[in-house]
Amino acid sequence: MKNYALLFLGTLLFFMGIYEKVHSQNIPQALETVTAEDGSVWERVSAPGFGNADNLAVVSLLPFQDSLYAVTRNDETGFEIWRTTAAGDWEQVSVAGLTDNNKFFGFVKPGSFNTTDAKYNLMQNIWGDLIEFKGSLYLAVSSGYQGSLLYGSIGLEIWRFDGTTWQALVAPGVDSDEAGTITDIADCSEDDDLTARISDDTKTWETNAWQNCILRVEAAFTNSTGLTEADAPGLRLLNIVSNTVTALTVQQDEKAGDEDTLCEEHQIAGDPGRPAHIVPAISIGDAYSIVCGEEEQGFGEIWNKSIVDLEVFNGELYATVGLNYVDGSRIWKTSDGTAWVPTTDYSLGLFHGFDPDGNPIADEDCPGPVLPERNGLPVSSSTTHLVANDITGTLTLFTGGTGTSGCNGRGARVLRLDGDEWNYIVDAFVDENATGTNENGFGVNDDFQNSNFQAWTWAQYDELLFSGIVRLQGGCRLMYTATGATDDGAWVYVVGGEDTPQPFPDGFGDPNNIAANIYTYNSALYVGTNVNNAFNDLAPIDGADIWRATGPAGDLSWTRVTGDGFGDQTIIEFSEFITFAGSLYLAASGQSPAHFPGDEQPGASAAKVYRLASEAPERSCPVAFVLGDAAPELAAMRHVRDNVLAKAAIGRTLIGQYYKTAERLTAILDAHPILGRAVKTAIHYAAPLFR
Predict the structure, then answer these.
(1) What distance in Å separates the CA atoms of residue 113 and residue 591, rounded to the nearest whole number?
(2) Helices (H) and strands (E) in the chain — how many of each?
(3) pTM over 0.70, yes/no
(4) Which residue, of 396, 476, 583, 629, is most buried by count of CB atoms within 10 Å of its CB?
């Protein structure tokens, strides 16, 4: 009889216009069922770390050609790519030259936050993204960690998959420039100029042919610092200043600022509280290559460590760059997926001590602290996620920029793409006054810990543009804009802050909730938090939260779905929300982008993927509306929903599609009583099928 119930519900939903064809999609099996605090039911659909405990985070999820793809972070052996199969399992995707790029390791020595010396893979992928563009899957992966050290980064990579073949677009060796073996090394110590000379006596180069290119040396650790493993492979990258017929003049570029070019293994001090970085030795006999051009890794610059986000807009693919502490972030785009061009200046056009037109700022006019030593340095080292939205009346692309210490101040920036020009709509220079939520940090930019640090994620809800705001001390915030304009009051708080009467508290009441990953699903606004206690007196961490909001933006009703990582308090981030086959999926991670090896919680769980199987019972339900909450048929139907439909892929899709349109269907039934009575009668006659 229960099979007849499934058939009946499927037929009913089809004729109500919400059934989708999903039989060909590779939907993962449920491995565990979790009932959340609000009564919603979630299913874990992946093994922790996909079977590899070193996959501590999932940095991106995306459906492509009937499968759900997942990309991980892994500091030991390098990131991994996984996808679902027709059998409901996950299979690992291996790509020559991409997923096997794991032989070069770096070493970090503890800072105040982590506790162990650690060896790490250069392609660990703290940020990454997947997107479909012109029928192909695009993958961006990152190298390096947060901070003003390179930490062994070899730059971001972008690859493309057409369903059959993977192609390197921005990656090492996209074209062949030059290669050889080092025959001589000179001026490579602290006692000479900042540069060194690397020679290959077998060459006859044209003078300055390799100027501004990058020298890659297949070096090795010698353990001369006593902190590494002797003979472990390493990789050194140096900027080429000039060249003669046989020699390259090179400059070390391991930290943001001038430094001596040293060829022996050596340790470089980290930022306050951050680990030191150890680089390998360069020796005669080492193999080298020279790479040039924007098609090379990092768009030809090793400090372009990561892609934060990819977004399609007006037939072009945009990418935001993260963690460039030398020149600042940039936004890039491509029309064909192959040729990439920058759409902004470095640092999104802002440098400390100068206004947007390049004019010097007097000390008394600095929006932030007067730090003369920072003047001329980039304001935004990273650009946040992108979103296309029509609140301006025209579909427009938005993104955010971060802030660094200096005259122009810390705090979030927001930019809007007008035609081909990016314009600030949140920044100290958008108007003549110094008040309003259109100022740097949405008006809260006094210090690093308490400022509204980043406009990190975006979602459209209630026909408004919402942003999840990173705030390191005191907890994250949520804001929205109705216009995307530069007015003083263009942005309004809905979580935290002081501009909205009785706002929901900062960090949803937990100061360790420092970031909000937001997503709209089934007419509700979902928030997954990122947990970090480093700036909150190391208060105990009890796992990441998920919250759900309904109702109008001015009067949101918030419900906590989970406050402890679905029972795993080592899960410190819920992110990567995505809709696949009519259901909501998300990633639960035991490591956040701010973490170095050793920063994670003791016994940190490997990453997991969860699926929403059924909404909380109190959610608006058309069937409950026409039958009444006490109807015996309702209890029977809910039993079939939770014990039959939720355990089958097609059933979960039917449930997801049902609740996706629940509020709209209830409104239709309310407006058309005759239709409501017809549905009630149909359910009454079908009731025996549910028993």
Answers:
(1) 13
(2) 6, 40
(3) yes
(4) 476
